[in-house]
Amino acid sequence: MRVALLFAVCVAGVRAAPADRAPYSLPALERLAQAGADVSVRVIELENGRTLAALNPAKALIPASVTKLYTTAAALRHWGAAHRFKTRVLRQGPVRGGVLHGDLVFVGGGDPGLVNAQLWALAQRVREAGIAAVDGRLLVDPRGFGPVPCVTRDRCHARIESEDAYNAPLSSAGVDYSNACLSVRPGDSPGTPARLAFEPFDLPMLAIRGSIKTLPPGRPAHIRVIRRSENGREVFVISGGIPQDGRTRRFYRSIAHPDRYAGEVFRAFLEQAGVTVRGGIGVVGQGDPSPRGVRVAEVKGTPLGELLRGMLVYSNNYMADTLALDWAAAEGAAVPITLPQAGRRLTAFARDVNADSPFAWAHGGGPVLESGSGLTVGNRLSANDVTALLAHEYHRYGDFPAFLAGLTVPEQTPVAMLKGGDSAWGTRVAAKTGSLNQPVSVFSLAGYLRLGGGRWGAFAVLVNGSRAHPHIGLFRAIDAVRADLQALLARDDAARR
């Protein structure tokens, strides 16, 4: 696979990169490196390839969620921003008098953003097709890329229990990012139980153990919710209290059995639409015969460009790794596909970007990607690698608007850690963050700068804890990055006056 870059070196694009000289220093990040952090940085001007600042730019470090930039670039290259994943429903058997004599099959299309709105529309279309009852079962077919084994500690642990949403197991038929939602609302008076409900439906596979008390007004809420998998059921173990005057709180927890969960949620939407399923719910296994049937309904998901924005801004690991598996399947990988297989294809993509770069400093890198999300700690990227990718996307004129739209601007971001700083930081930076705390601390930031005179720049900063100093404070790293980029923008503005 070769990446056809749109660097028109001989026409009107980037001129051959000049010697790798950096006119601006990075004192705050240099101090972090002197204090024991591993740091890799490169900042360039995109129109002419000039290096503005660099610090150990070839050093390969753990990138965390900056990995998602590669997943985004690969997806845009293959499908384009307008692509929409499809989810289908088939019937196996005839329909007579509004009754399907056979099974209804929910076929997962690998939509990383399949949510309740699409399921509601799909259920309505089944009813509009003349089906009011199903004599057989509702089958879930998740074989778009087959059963996906867990390869990270987080997801493997989530098959037993979870206190988080980010570590959901993967499935081509997953819905709501393979998360279930428990809402907690205060009771009528202190001492009474809080009102609890699963949203959007109370499903047979969901259960609650424990209770949450209503506290006197003004008291702080303290609520713990652990989801445990017990004999095929998802048990929410709860404790704590919520003040009587408190707002409703919602707790999202990853689900250990995403395929069955998708079936139960879709069956509830079918019942809401007036379609009764008389049989149970089954999951089609990888070795089972292919469930052939007649298409009953289909729903298209959100356009890819919009999905990517949500994936990047909120750093959704489930979406990124599902998309990486989708991309590997579309590129010809044999099903079933594992996350490491998808990672190897992303690694090849990243190395092609480097090889085709007009920048000499990009050619010696050896990026390694084991997933599409960055949740895997074996991923390794240097600032050279990431900056080469950013330059690559800047010159893919059809993809760049959607790629840029997924990056967050500090003044407008929902990412609290990027708040603060001066007006240049707040309005002239668009970036993707990444952070981890194991096996060492990680903070990464990569994206674009608006330099003086409207020029474009690209930058990548990776800060890892080292063997000698495994944990560097997150906000200490953020403050150093912010201070140096603010100063660089100010010095560049002054140089142009």
TrEMBL record:
| Keyword Hydrolase in annotation | yes
- What Gene Ontology molecular function terms does this protein carry? serine-type carboxypeptidase activity
Q: Which superkingdom is the protein from?
A: Bacteria
> Is tRNA-binding given among the entry's keywords?
no
Any one Gene Ontology biological process term? peptidoglycan metabolic process
What UniProt keywords are attached to this protein's entry?
A: Hydrolase
Q: Name one Pfam family in it.
A: Peptidase_S13
What's the family? Belongs to the peptidase S13 family.
Q: What NCBIfam families does its record include?
A: PBP4 (TIGR00666)
Q: What is the protein's name according to its record?
A: D-alanyl-D-alanine carboxypeptidase/D-alanyl-D-alanine-endopeptidase
Please name the source species. Acidihalobacter prosperus
Q: What is the lineage of its organism?
A: Bacteria, Pseudomonadati, Pseudomonadota, Gammaproteobacteria, Chromatiales
